[in-house]
Amino acid sequence: MTSYIGAVDQGTTSTRFIIFDQNGNMVSVSRTTHDQICEKPGWVAHDPAQIRDNTFTVIERALAKAGLTGKDLAAIGVTNQRETVAAWDRHTGKPLYHAVVWQCARSDEICRNLDAVYGKDCFRQQTGLPTATYFSGPKIKWMMDHVPAVRQAVDNGTALFGTMDTWVIWNLTGGPGKGNHVTDVTNASRTLLMNLNTLDWDPDILKTLGIPRDCLPAIVPSSDPAALGRTHAPGPLGHGVTVGGALGDQQAALFGHTCFAPGEAKNTYGTGCFLLFNTGHKIIFSRHGLLTTPAYQIHGERPVYALEGSIAYAGALVQWVRDNLGLIASAPEIEDLANTVEDNGDVYCVPAFSGLFAPHWRPDARGVIAGLTQYATKGHIARAVLEATAYQTKDIVEAISKDLGKHLDLTALKVDGGMVENHTLMQFQADILDKKVIRPKVTETTALGAAYAAGLAVGFWPDTGSLKEKWQAHTTWYPHMDDLRRTRLYDSWQKAVKTSFGWC
Ligand SMILES: Nc1ncnc2c1ncn2[C@@H]1O[C@H](COP(=O)(O)OP(=O)(O)O)[C@@H](O)[C@H]1O
Ligand SMILES: O=P(O)(O)OC[C@H](O)CO
């Protein structure tokens, strides 16, 4: 009996496999972390072989824990850290280099040159994105320019490129000789190579960057009964499980929150923090620093788009406080430390460790802790660190509201991710936004979104309406802060942000 749907969640710090039942409840989960390879300041890489092996392992373990096999799965979905890109040999399946991670700034010179030669953000009209090291296209060009094995494989026609959905699906569907080389529209849109209107690789951009189309995967819908392929040995699922869904993790979280209607939004607080706002079938170009991105495409339907605000350092800033400052021994401890003080004591922390993403897009920004006096304690720093994510989220909501004006009717923000365990942060988020913040019962919203996309594709769930009925709130935080205080705090935050500009 195929009573379950599985979802691979290949994230920045870990890979998970989660099995869901028909009610969308988690039946089994297995998770394992992988190495963060930081060879130079600002560089971040992963080992694609380790990620492939971890994916196989977590699938085996989660199935074993639940006493299930691949035959019990009606379909699987795949969701992943976006923009991170790998290169491998199509005949051997061996990676040609590390996967270059979304946070990695090694393509900075390439991006600066593109701005200088073709004008700032020269691909925005086609892709909805600014020119930034964040996106995969410049990372692919960096590999072709700096890694001889990649260059040679491209010249020989043996190289394949792909974001982590592509790498995982290619391996799960059989690898060398059999693997399906595909990506979905949400992941493809994060490469800076996909045209938002045609939902295909943009020939002019490929030419400008010198990337051959043959090395890139086919772009397919996010929920599709056939296009993503079926599993094949030697992967752990054996033969014939349909890969029915694939979405970048932030789009998957939007799907998992069932934000299917224009005007609905979610914010995911993980390593980074990503707010997506559903704009329906309309492609809206931001004039205030947001990204335009497909939210999802269901087979046979028009794509749904979103405006996105991406924050590079959220939970990662808490990790920095733990690992580099040693102020806490574990991430959750930051809440107790922050609660040793009543407020931030006028201390602000801007985590522009590798520049600032949305809505500023300032590669020249660097981190600052501002407003220090002799009164400040580590409690104030802990509070400033938590509040940084909430202020950055407010920057994004402000940008959306400038873009959409009277059309913005965001009454509540649905939230998920590791940091939503932190009540102090969530209460401050509601206060500084002056909006309700709602956390759902199923916290693995990203994997749930991929499972939903897969389940819809094979008829496990009939339609999006039936998914919407399953969504249930767990906790709601209501705003309590008075307007004067909110304005004063936010003004000071904006001053602190300005001091982070122009350091390199
Ligand atoms: N209670 C907490 N308070 C603040 N931050 C937390 C807390 N628990 C976890 N985090 C942060 O959340 C992040 C992990 O969240 P998760 O959603 O698993 O991330 P990802 O999917 O990006 O790997 C870590 O960066 C960690 O520092
Ligand atoms: O793996 P996460 O949850 O940190 O998400 C990373 C984002 O997809 C980067 O765009």
TrEMBL record:
Occurrences of domain Carbohydrate kinase FGGY C-terminal (ranges): 266-457
GO function terms (MF aspect): ATP binding; glycerol kinase activity
Any idea of its EC number?
2.7.1.30
* Reactions accelerated catalytically: glycerol + ATP = sn-glycerol 3-phosphate + ADP + H(+)
Known SUPFAM superfamilies for this protein? Actin-like ATPase domain
Residues bound to ATP are T12, T13, S14, T271, G315, Q319, G418
Pathway(s) it belongs to: Polyol metabolism; glycerol degradation via glycerol kinase pathway; sn-glycerol 3-phosphate from glycerol: step 1/1
Q: Which Pfam families match?
A: FGGY_C, FGGY_N
Q: Does the keyword Kinase apply?
A: yes
Q: Which residues bind ADP?
A: T12, R16, T271, G315, G418, N422
* Activity regulation statement: Inhibited by fructose 1,6-bisphosphate (FBP).
Keyword Nucleotidyltransferase part of the UniProt annotation: no
Show where the Carbohydrate kinase FGGY N-terminal domain sits: 4-256
UniProt protein name: Glycerol kinase
Tell me the organism.
Answer: Desulfotignum phosphitoxidans DSM 13687
What's the name of its gene? Answer: glpK
